[in-house]
C-alpha cells in the first residue's frame, strides 16, 4: 500500500501537492468556521466534586455577574485609613462612568485594617468579562496615578483571567517562534542542505495546521480542553519531523546508490514508509487508551494527538514522496558548504564512534545489562513517592501584577481565597430545612482553625429558582494544594456535612471546589492508570509481535518502554516535587506532579518510543536476514540507524525542552518529562540496554509460535535490502 501511494504521488507530484494543500486549507478554515465546543459540568464530572457541579447545573442558576475589585493597600507600614477612603471614593466616581461597569459597591475594610476593597460588578456576559476588562484596568491605573502614596490595583476573576489569557497566548507564541528556528537549525546540521532541512519542517507545520482545524471540528463530538492546542503543536512537530526525516534520509541513501528518483522514493516508501505506518499506528493505539480514562480532559488530549499523528502519517505517504520526486537532486540544494562536507564525512566517523559506544554491550552483555537496568531502576525509584495535585491559583506565574495583587487580596481577605462548595439537592418543600442546616454548618466551622472566618453579613447561601438546589461557600485560609486545605475538605466530607444534612429526607449532597477537584482527580488518575496501561501494553505487544513476527521482540519492547517511562517519572519527581531546581527552571515547587501528567506521559512515551524502536530493530532484523551473526547484526543495525535516530531524537528533545521554558507549571513538567524520556530512550536504552539484551538473547530474539512465522524465509542478497525485510 505504501509503495502504491508513493508511486502515484511520485508520478503525479503536482496533483498530490495540490490535494495536500487543499486538504490542509479545508481542515484549517473549516475548523475555524465551525468553532470550538468546550466541556460542560457533566462532561467534566469526576468524583464527588463532579457530582456537585452537575447538581449546580441542574439547578439552572441565573448567571451571576462578573465581579472585579479595586484593592487599596499601603506601600509600606500601616494603611492610612483616611487616604484609603479618599482613594476609594475617587475610584468609585471614576468607575461609575466606565463602559461595562454595572455598579460599584461600598468599600469593605479588612478586619486587620491592612486593606480596603472596592467591589465592581460588571455588565454583560460573565464568560466574556476578561475580554472586556481593559477599560477598568485603565481607570484603575488613573486612580493609582492620582494617589501615588498608596498601592491601588485591580484584582478578581476578570482581571486574573485576562492576565492568564495573555500569559498563555504569549507562551504559545513563544513556543511557536522558538521551535521553528531550533528545529530548522538541527535539520540543517543533519542534512547540510537547506531544502532537505525545510521539507520535514514543512510537513510538520502543515500537519499541525490541519490537525488544529480538525480538532475544533472534533470538539463537537469530544469537547476540547485548554491544553489541546499546545499538545497538538508539541506532538505534531515531533512526529512530523521524525517521519519525514526517516523518509528523506532513506531516499537520499538510495539515490546515492544510483537509483533514479522514482525508484528511490518507492524503496523509501517500502522501508521507511512502512516504519512510519507501524510507528504511527503504535502512537495512535497508545493515545486511544486515554479514552478509557472516561473524562473530557484526557479524551480531548487523545483526540488532538491522534489527529495530528494520523495527518503526519498521511502526509509522509502522499505529499512527501511527491515533493521528493519533484525536487530530485534539488533536495540537496542549496548546500551549506562546511555542513555538507561534514555530513558526508560524519557517516564513517559516526559508525566508528557508535562501535566504541556499543563495545561494552557487545562484549559483556550480561554485566552491561545488569548495571544499566539497575541505574534506570534507581532513577525510577523516586516515582514511588509521586504525589498528584491540580495546580492552584498560587501556581500561576507571579510575574503579572494581577497575581501579585491576588496574593495581597487573600492575605487581607482570607475568605476570597480557597473555597469549598457544599451543594445540596432536595425536594423544594425541604428548602427551609436545608437552609437552616447549611447555616448551622457554616457556624460550626467557625470553631475550627481549618476554616476562614465568616464575613460580617454571615454565610452566603444561593438557592435555585425552583428551590431544589442550595449552594454554600465555605472558605479556608490555606492554599488549594496545601495539606491543611485537604484536611478541611476531608473534615467537611466525612464529619461536618453528613452530620448537618444526613437527617434531611430525600436530600443528596456533595462537596466541590478547587481542593475537591484536585483530590478527586488524583484519585481518578490512580484508579484509571492500570486500565489505560493494560490496554496500551496489550495492544502494543500485539502490534510489535505481528510486525516483527516475534513474541520476544514484542516483550522486550514493552520492558524497555516501561524502564524509560519509569525513569522519566522518577526524574520528574526529583525535579518538581523538591525545590532545588526552582531557580534553574523558573518555577515554584507545588510539591507534587500535575494530576493529568503521569497518565498522558505514559501513553505518549509508549507511542513515540516506537519511532526509534521500530526503525532500529528493523535494521537489526535486516542484518540477521542477510545471514550476519547476531552480535554483528545488532552492531550493524544500531550503527546504521544511528545518524537518523540521533537527529530525530535531538529534534524531539529540543522541541520538548522549549515547553520547559513556558510559564505554567503543567507545561514545564510536560516538557521536562517528555524531553528526559526521549533522551534516555535514545541514549541509554538504545545504546546500552537494547544491544546488550539482544546480544544476550541471540537467536531467541526472533522466536514466535508457528502461526506467526513468515510463510517464506527472507531473501538473502548482497543488494541493498529493505529495512523491514521479513517483517
Q: How is the secondary structure organized here?
A:
Layout: H1 2-11, H2 13-34, H3 47-58, E1 67-74, H4 81-95, E2 101-104, E3 108-109, E4 115-122, H5 134-146, E5 150-156, H6 157-191, H7 194-218, H8 228-256, H9 261-288, H10 296-317, H11 319-327, H12 337-363, H13 365-380, E6 388-389, H14 401-412, E7 418-425, H15 431-444, E8 461-463, E9 469-476, H16 483-501, E10 508-513, H17 514-548, H18 551-576, H19 582-585, E11 593-594, H20 597-625, H21 630-659, H22 665-697
Parallel strand pairs: 6-11
Antiparallel strand pairs: 1-4, 1-5, 2-4, 3-4, 7-9, 7-10, 8-9
Helix pairs in contact: 1-2, 1-9, 1-11, 2-7, 2-11, 3-17, 4-5, 6-7, 6-8, 6-21, 7-8, 7-10, 8-9, 8-10, 8-21, 9-10, 9-17, 9-20, 12-13, 12-21, 12-22, 13-18, 13-22, 15-16, 17-18, 17-20, 18-20, 18-22, 20-21, 20-22, 21-22
Structure description:
With 727 residues, the protein is an alpha+beta fold. It is 64% helix and 8% strand. It contains 22 helices and eleven strands. Strands 1, 2, 3, 4 and 5 form a five-stranded antiparallel beta sheet that branches. β3 (108-109) and β4 (115-122) form a beta hairpin. α4 (81-95) runs antiparallel to α5 (134-146), α6 (157-191) packs antiparallel against α21 (630-659) and α15 (431-444) crosses α16. The longest helix is centred in the N-terminal third of the chain and has 35 residues, at 157-191. It is elongated. The two termini are 15 Å apart. The model is unreliable at 713-727 (pLDDT under 50). Pfam families: MMPL (PF03176). It is found in: Cell membrane. This is Membrane protein. It is a multi-pass membrane protein. The chain crosses the membrane at residues 12-34, 182-215, 227-248, 275-294, 306-325, 365-384, 528-546, 553-576, 596-617, 638-660, 672-703.
Amino acid at each position: 500500500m505504501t509503495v502504491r501511494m508513493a508511486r502515484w504521488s511520485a508520478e503525479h507530484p503536482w496533483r498530490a501537492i495540490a490535494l495536500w494543500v487543499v486538504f490542509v486549507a479545508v481542515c484549517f478554515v473549516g475548523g475555524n468556521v465551525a468553532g470550538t465546543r468546550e466541556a460542560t459540568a457533566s462532561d467534566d464530572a469526576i468524583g464527588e466534586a463532579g457530582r456537585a457541579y452537575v447538581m449546580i447545573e441542574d439547578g439552572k442558576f441565573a448567571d451571576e455577574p462578573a465581579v472585579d475589585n479595586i484593592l487599596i493597600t499601603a506601600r509600606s507600614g500601616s494603611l492610612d485609613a483616611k487616604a484609603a477612603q479618599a482613594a476609594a471614593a475617587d475610584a468609585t466616581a471614576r468607575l461609575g462612568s466606565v463602559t461595562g461597569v454595572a455598579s460599584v459597591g461600598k468599600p469593605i475594610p479588612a478586619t486587620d485594617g491592612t486593606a480596603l476593597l472596592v467591589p465592581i460588578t460588571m455588565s454583560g456576559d460573565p464568560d466574556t468579562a476578561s475580554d472586556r476588562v481593559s477599560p477598568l484596568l485603565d481607570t484603575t491605573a488613573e486612580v493609582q496615578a492620582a494617589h501615588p502614596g498608596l498601592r491601588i490595583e485591580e484584582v478578581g476573576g476578570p482581571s486574573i483571567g485576562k492576565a492568564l489569557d495573555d500569559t498563555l497566548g504569549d507562551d504559545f507564541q513563544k513556543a511557536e517562534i522558538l521551535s521553528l528556528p531550533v528545529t530548522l537549525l538541527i535539520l540543517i546540521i543533519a542534512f547540510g542542505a537547506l531544502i532537505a532541512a525545510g521539507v520535514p519542517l514543512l510537513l510538520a507545520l502543515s500537519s499541525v495546521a490541519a490537525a488544529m482545524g480538525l480538532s475544533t471540528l472534533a470538539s463537537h463530538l469530544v469537547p476540547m480542553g485548554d491544553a489541546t492546542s499546545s499538545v497538538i503543536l508539541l506532538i505534531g512537530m515531533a512526529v512530523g519531523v521524525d517521519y519525514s526525516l526517516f523518509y528523506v534520509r532513506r531516499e537520499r541513501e538510495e539515490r546515492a546508490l544510483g537509483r533514479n528518483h522514482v525508484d528511490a522514493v518507492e524503496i523509501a516508501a517500502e522501508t521507511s514508509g512502512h516504519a512510519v505506518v507501524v510507528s504511527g499506528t503504535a502512537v495512535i493505539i497508545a493515545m486511544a487508551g486515554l479514552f478509557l480514562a472516561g473524562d473530557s480532559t484526557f479524551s480531548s488530549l487523545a483526540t488532538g494527538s491522534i489527529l495530528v499523528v494520523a495527518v503526519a502519517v498521511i502526509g509522509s505517504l502522499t505529499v512527501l514522496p511527491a515533493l521528493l520526486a519533484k525536487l530530485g537532486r534539488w533536495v540537496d540544494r542549496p548546500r551549506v558548504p562546511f555542513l555538507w562536507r561534514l555530513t558526508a564525512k560524519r557517516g564513517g566517523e559516526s559508525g566508528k564512534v557508535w562501535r566504541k559506544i556499543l563495545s561494552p554491550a557487545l562484549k559483556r552483555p550480561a554485566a552491561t545489562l545488569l548495571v544499566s537496568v539497575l541505574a534506570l531502576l534507581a532513577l525510577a525509584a523516586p516515582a514511588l513517592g509521586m504525589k498528584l495535585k491540580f495546580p492552584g491559583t498560587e501556581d500561576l506565574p507571579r510575574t503579572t501584577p494581577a497575581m501579585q495583587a491576588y496574593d495581597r487580596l487573600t492575605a487581607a481577605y482570607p475568605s476570597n481565597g480557597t473555597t469549598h462548595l457544599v451543594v445540596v439537592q432536595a425536594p423544594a418543600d425541604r428548602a427551609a430545612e436545608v437552609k437552616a442546616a447549611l447555616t448551622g454548618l457554616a457556624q460550626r466551622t467557625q470553631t475550627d482553625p481549618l476554616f476562614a472566618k465568616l464575613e460580617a453579613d454571615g454565610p452566603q447561601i444561593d438557592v435555585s429558582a425552583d428551590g431544589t438546589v442550595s449552594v454554600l461557600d465555605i472558605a479556608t485560609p490555606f492554599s488549594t494544594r496545601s495539606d491543611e486545605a485537604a484536611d478541611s475538605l476531608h473534615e467537611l466530607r466525612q464529619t461536618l456535612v453528613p452530620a448537618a444534612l444526613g437527617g434531611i429526607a430525600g436530600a443528596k449532597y456533595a462537596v466541590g471546589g478547587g481542593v475537591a477537584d484536585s483530590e478527586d482527580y488524583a484519585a481518578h488518575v490512580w484508579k484509571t492508570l492500570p486500565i489505560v496501561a493494560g490496554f496500551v501494553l496489550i495492544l502494543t505487544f500485539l502490534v510489535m509481535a505481528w510486525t516483527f513476527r516475534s513474541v520476544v521482540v514484542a516483550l522486550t519492547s514493552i520492558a524497555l518502554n516501561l524502564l524509560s517511562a519509569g525513569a522519566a517519572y522518577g526524574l520528574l519527581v526529583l525535579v518538581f516535587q523538591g525545590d532545588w531546581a526552582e531557580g534553574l527552571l523558573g518555577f515554584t515547587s507545588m510539591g507534587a506532579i500535575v494530576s493529568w501528567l503521569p497518565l498522558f506521559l505514559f501513553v505518549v512515551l509508549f507511542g513515540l518510543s516506537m519511532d526509534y524502536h521500530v526503525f532500529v530493530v528493523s535494521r537489526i532484523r535486516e542484518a540477521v536476514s542477510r545471514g550476519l551473526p547476531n552480535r554483528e547484526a545488532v552492531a550493524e543495525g544500531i550503527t546504521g540507524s544511528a545518524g537518523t535516530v540521533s537527529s530525530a531524537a535531538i529534534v524531539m528533545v529540543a522541541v520538548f525542552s522549549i515547553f520547559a521554558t513556558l510559564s505554567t507549571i503543567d507545561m514545564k513538567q510536560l516538557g521536562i518529562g517528555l524531553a528526559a524520556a526521549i533522551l534516555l530512550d535514545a541514549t541509554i536504552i538504545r545504546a546500552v540496554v537494547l544491544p546488550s539484551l539482544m546480544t544476550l538473547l541471540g537467536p531467541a530474539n526472533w522466536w514466535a509460535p508457528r502461526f506467526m512465522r513468515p510463510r517464506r524465509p527472507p531473501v538473502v542478497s548482497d543488494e541493498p535490502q529493505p529495512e523491514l525485510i521479513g517483517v
